[in-house]
Every structure is written in C-alpha cells, then in structure tokens.
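Q: Given only this backbone (306 positions), what sequence would you predict?
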C-alpha cells in the first residue's frame, strides 16, 4: 500500500471514529469578548472565553496566518519543523508579547490525540520559527501556535501536518478521573458545564502521597490544554493564582476554570513539573448539557515526561 492510499484510509477512519468537521474553520467568526474569568484569573495564554467557539480551527484570523514551511514529512523521532506567522501584508511577524516566559507556545497533537507535545520553538531573525519534534508515530497532526503579536490580541492558529509512515489509529480513551504518569497519579475533580467557566481541581500524588512541592513551569504550577474530540477545537487555560504570590500552594491541588463551548468528548492534557522533570497527565472528559459528572475511577496510564 502506498503512502497516499494509507493516508486516505487514515483520514476516513478518523472521520468515522471522531466525527472530524473538516470544513468548520472556514465558517467561524471573531471570538466574543472576555468572560468574567479573565486573564487575571487564569493567565493570558490562549484562555477560553465563556460561550466562545474554541480556538485553533483556522490557519488565518485577525490578519495573521500560520504557515508551515513543510506541511508533510516522514515519521522520525527528531523531525525539524519550521513555520512562520505572517501578518496581513504577508510579512513574517518578528515582535511578540511574552506570555508565561515564552513568545510563542506550540502544541502538536495527532488527530486521534494519541500523541501530544507542548514545545517552545526558537525564533530566527528573519521571522522563521524552528523546533525539533518527536514524530515517530505517523499520521495526521494538528499544529497549534499560541501567541500574542506586538500591538495585537492573543491568538491560537492551527494548521495540519501530515507525517508519512505506518500508522496505528487509536480509539479515544474512555472517560476517567485519574491518570497514571510513572510514579505519579493525577486525580480530576469537578463538573464541566458547557457555556460557562467550570471549576476543576487536578491533584498530584506520588506513590499515594500528596505532592506539595510542585515547581513553577512557565510561571505556573500547571498548564492545561483541552481539545474537543469532534474537531480538535482548542482551549488552553491556566490555574488560579501563581507561584510566589503568597497565596497559591505548590500542590497537591491545581485549580483551573475550564470553558467548554459545547457538549461532547474532550481530551485534557496537564503539564506539571516536579524534581526538574515536566510530565503530562492525560484525561478524557465527557461533557453533557447538564454538566459532566465525575467519570469512572479507572486510572489511565497515558502520559509522558518532556
């Protein structure tokens, strides 16, 4: 079977399993105004807005475009990715407002959400960003660039990246309130109601003992990315408080306000740092119109260190 045939089958399989809406991005309008839980509550980097459609469904918005230099590559454990953010005139953007210690945050996820990376590229003088990625698992990926251009508003733009090779399509893991990452167990508590900020608490334990000395990672004790399974709509929220403010404890609990714009299945990825290592805990949450009750207690082994 040649590569193009494989990818055709792969895309059809994902559409059947996850109901991916390939044409959604072309119909979306500007994001609504900020909700009551504004950037002061949970950070300025890609925060969700009450009642808003999720970000990342479009490659171009508000005069800015995410352009991948090579939208197709071959599976490799250390694959270079180069891209640019272009302004309305088609020129690369070189001036950014720093958010959470970085000028740009890059989220790369396979469309079945079986492979996830949160990385921070290097900006060259001419305006091209570059970063090595672990693309050892072939498939279709979504690349999200989360940034604030100088003089502009925060944006999350998305583009597709195709990785050729033998692929292994995975079903979405079942909802669970716990995720296992090596010796760490992360528990999710809270109910997510669509269309309004919902409080969730993620609690970190190691070998059954609460972790009370989480380390700041990108100026926070945790970073949470939520992706809607149907179309990979993107939410990136941050916890209440911040390290060093005299009020925010360094674990075991990290409190977030999550804005799910609609009912449906969501995949949540929590980055946290302990003893100098960043780890990622992964959850599936099923959100209903009446709120998402705590899913089953089965621990999910998905998760990895950076």
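A: Predicted residues:
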């Amino acid at each position: 079977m040649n590569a193009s045939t494989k990818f055709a089958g792969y895309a059809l399989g994902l559409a059947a399993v996850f109901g991916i809406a390939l044409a959604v991005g072309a119909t979306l309008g500007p994001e609504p105004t900020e909700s009551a839980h504004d950037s002061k509550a949970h950070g300025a980097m890609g925060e969700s807005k009450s009642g808003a459609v999720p970000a990342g469904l479009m490659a171009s918005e508000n005069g800015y475009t995410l352009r991948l230099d090579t939208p197709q590559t071959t599976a490799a454990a250390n694959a270079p990715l180069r891209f640019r953010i272009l302004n309305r005139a088609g020129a690369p953007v070189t001036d950014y407002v720093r958010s959470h210690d970085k000028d740009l945050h890059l989220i790369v996820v396979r469309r079945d959400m079986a492979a996830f990376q949160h990385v921070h590229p290097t900006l060259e003088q001419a305006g091209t960003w570059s970063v090595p990625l672990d693309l050892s698992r072939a498939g279709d990926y979504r690349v999200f660039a989360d940034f604030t251009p100088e003089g502009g508003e925060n944006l999350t733009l998305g583009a597709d990246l195709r990785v050729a090779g033998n692929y292994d399509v995975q079903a979405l893991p079942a909802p669970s309130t716990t995720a296992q990452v090596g010796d760490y167990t992360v528990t999710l508590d809270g109910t997510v109601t669509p269309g309004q900020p919902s409080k969730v608490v993620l609690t970190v334990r190691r070998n059954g003992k609460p972790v009370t000395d989480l380390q700041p990672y990108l100026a926070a004790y945790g970073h949470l990315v939520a992706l809607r399974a149907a179309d990979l709509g993107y939410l990136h929220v941050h916890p209440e408080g911040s390290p060093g403010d005299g009020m925010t404890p360094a674990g075991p609990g990290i409190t977030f306000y999550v804005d799910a714009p609609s009912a449906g299945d969501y995949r949540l990825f929590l980055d946290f740092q302990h003893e100098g290592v960043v780890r990622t805990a992964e959850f599936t949450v099923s959100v209903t119109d009446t709120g998402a009750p705590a899913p089953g207690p089965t621990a999910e082994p998905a998760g990895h260190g950076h």
